[in-house]
Amino acid sequence: MNASGSWAARRLLLGLAQTVAVVLLVFVLTEALPGDAAVSFAGDQPDPESIAAVRASMGLDRPAHERLAAWAWGLLHGDLGTSLTSGRPVTAFLADGFGPTLLLTGLTVVLLVPAGVGLGVFAARHEGRPADRLVSAVLLAVYAIPEFALGVLLVTVFALRLGWLPPTALGYGTDLLAHPAALVLPVLVLLARPVCSLARLIRAGMTDALAAPHTAQAQRYGVSGARLRYAHALPVALTPAAQQLARTVDWLLCGVVVVEALFVIPGLGTVLMNAVADRDIPVIQGLAVVFGLTTVLVNLGADLVTHRFAPRAEVAA
Predict the structure, then answer these.
(1) Domains of the chain by range and CATH?
(2) Averaged pLDDT, 155-176
(3) 308/311 Cα distance (integer angstroms)
(4) Is the confidence at residue 252, as pLDDT, over 70?
(5) Quick one: a GO cellular component term (predicted)?
(6) Nearest to 258 by CA among 112, 152, 117
(7) 278 or 111, which is more confident?
(8) Which residues sit opposite 89 in a β-bridge?
(9) Of 95, 200, 212, 255, whose CA is between 20 and 30 Å from 75?
(10) Which residues have a Cβ under 8 Å from the Cβ of 301 and sit 6 or more positions away?
(11) Which has the closest alpha carbon to 206: 226, 229, 185, 187?
(12) In this prediction, what percent of the chain has a pLDDT beyond 70?
């Protein structure tokens, strides 16, 4: 096995170890949640016998290691568990909320790459000029605004003041494609910070590459500025951007919870928040595992792509 194959094998093993760690961490954290789920489901003013009966029916009277083993065995067979409140499989909740969340995150990622790369290239091309300073200042200012504050600001201006867009997706159900206006503000909120960080990364990578001694040497040999920018500096800047895109997906999985709650979108984030409010532990565990595994897989893919195009680059494991 060559060096690249050995590195890929080690990285895959690390991804497997991260997956196991995600499963253990999710179980431990849900075990540490305050309160008693059995008390919550035993009704008003329950007596100890009723609480014990509910706890036994939910399997909570078994030792933690037995419940962990049973849950992990179910995960290996694609069984995420059953909701305590509705009796529905957790996979049914995933199916219900998957569409709106995938639509939101998909639109964000599709728009993120051209917007972030375009702004970064524009700023690098005008380095040190007023246009560069203006773009950099706006990017820094937008990046500093928390998602919920930006969401409230956009709703106040574009929905309540101007009336151009609906303030929430309430009443539209899961078919958000039929109501594209309801997607504008949520996607803008999700895009804001990733675009800023990606554009700044592209700008920094291109300006460093254009300032390198070998670039000056290429200029002396008559290589055009456009070729240096787009055929040399931009690919150099895109390599670390792959890692940034992977971290962006991490952020999207967290940010989508805030955005869906703010704009009343019936996606996975809303399902997760409702499950936390109801202490529906199987649903919480199932969604947390799905989010965690998605993060592991995306980072694994980004590391493999980065290693393919820049084998000597340091890759965060």
Answers:
(1) 98-265 (1.10.3720.10)
(2) 85
(3) 6
(4) yes
(5) plasma membrane
(6) 152
(7) 111
(8) 82
(9) 255
(10) 246
(11) 229
(12) 91
